[in-house]
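Summary for the lay section of the report: proteins are chains of building blocks that fold into shapes. Here we show the chain for Oxidoreductase and then a coded description of the shape we predicted for it.
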Amino acid sequence: MTTMTQPRVLAFRRSNRVARVAIVAFIVLNLAAVQVMFAAAGPAHNLLGTIGRLLGLYLALVMAFQLLLVARLPMVDRAFGMDRLTSWHRWTGMTIFWLVLAHPTFVLLGFARLDGISFLDEVVNLAKQPPVLLGMIAAGLILVIVTLSVRVARRRLSYETWHAIHFLLYVVVLLGVLHQVYEGTAFKVNLVTQAYWWGLWTFALGSLLAGRLVVPLIRNSRHRLRVAAVVSESDDTVSVHVTGRDLDRLHARAGQFFLWRFPGYNKWWQVNPFSLSAAPNGRSLRLTAKGIGTTSAGLRDLPIGAKVYAEGPYGAFTAAHRTRGATVLIAGGIGITPIRALLEDPDLTGHVVVLYRVRSAQDAVLLGELRNLADVRQARLHLLTGRTGTDYQPFAPERLLALVPDITARDVYVCGPNPMTTSVLDSLRRLRVPSRQVHAERFRLAG
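The coded shape description reads as follows.
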C-alpha cells in the first residue's frame, strides 16, 4: 500500500470493527430484552398459550430486524457487505416463515383447549375479531412472499416481478403493527416495556423510510442524475454513462453498485442492481449491463438526457476490505463490471492478477479496457475460454494454484454467475485461503 492510501484504509478497518461489535451488541441486547419482557408478563392461560406468546414476541422482533436489513443502513452495509446481508435477509425470512406458522398455531391450540372446542372451530371463532383477522392476513401474505422466494419459484420469475412481489412486505408491516397494537400483551406490562418496544419499532420503521425513501429522494434531488451517453459494448451488452452535480459527494467506490431506475422509460417499480463498471471519478458514473431482464434489455434505447434515479452506493466489494498486499480478481461473464472498476481503483495497490472466465473471446465484455489497465499497472490478465466439462474445470484448485501459485497470500475478489462463484469459493476453501481474504459479490439482492 502507498503511504497515502494506508491511513484511510486503516481508519476504515477500525470503524468497521467498531460497527460490527455495535451491531452484534444490538442484536444480543434485544434478544435479552425480549426474554426479560416475556418473564415480566407472566404465563398465559395455559402452556400452549404461553409458548405462543413467546413465539409471537420473537416473530415481531425478527420482523423488526428484517426491516433494518431492508433499510440498507450504511453502517451495516459497510461492515458486512450487501452480499452477506442478502444471505441474512433470506435466513431471516425463513425464520419469520416458521414463526408465522408456529405462533398462531400454539395460540389457537391454547384457546381451543381453554374454550373446549376444536382447533378449526377456534380459528373461525377468533377470525371474527378484526385484530386477529389482520394478523391472519399478514401471516398469509408472508407465506406468499416466502413461497415465491424459494429457489425453484424464484427461477421462474423475472427480477422485476420478484421485486414487485416484495412490496407486499410493506403491507405485512402495516398489518403486523396494527395487530400488535390491539393484541400485544407482553410488552404492555409497564411504561418501560412499552417505551422499549415501540422505540424499537419506531427505529426500524424510521430507518426503513429514511434509507429507502427520504435519503434517496434527497440525494437524487441534489445530484440530478442524467444519461450522458449510451454505448453498445456487444450485441447484448450496453454501457450507460451518467452525469450529475457534485457526484463526489456520493462517496461511491470502485466495486460498489447502485439500484437504478429510469423514470419515464421504465415502470417505477422496475429496478435493477448494476455495478459501476468504471472507478467513480466525481464527474460521471458508468454502468454496464447485459440484456437479460426487462430493465437491462431496454437500456440501449435510453435517450440522452433521460432522468436517472439511483439508490446507493451499496456493497463492501471494495479495496478498503483488503487484508493483504497482493490481489486476485476473478470474474465470469458480466460479473467483470465491478472487477474492471477495481482494476482501475488507485486504492488497489500491489500486484494484481485478473482471471476472466467467458465461453469465447467474443463474449469478453470490456476486454480492451482490461488489457489497457493491466498494461498500465503491470497486472497479469488471464482470459479463460472454453466449455466447462469433465476435462476442463477452469477454477479447480490445482488450476487456480497453477495460475496463481501464491493465491493463499493474496486477497481474492470473485464476481460472476452463482455456479461459477460457488465453484471458486469451494476451491479457495480447499486451498485453505483464509476466509477474511475472500470477497464475493453474487447479487442475490432481494428487493
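Put simply, here is one thing we learned. The first strand starts at residue 226 and ends at 232.
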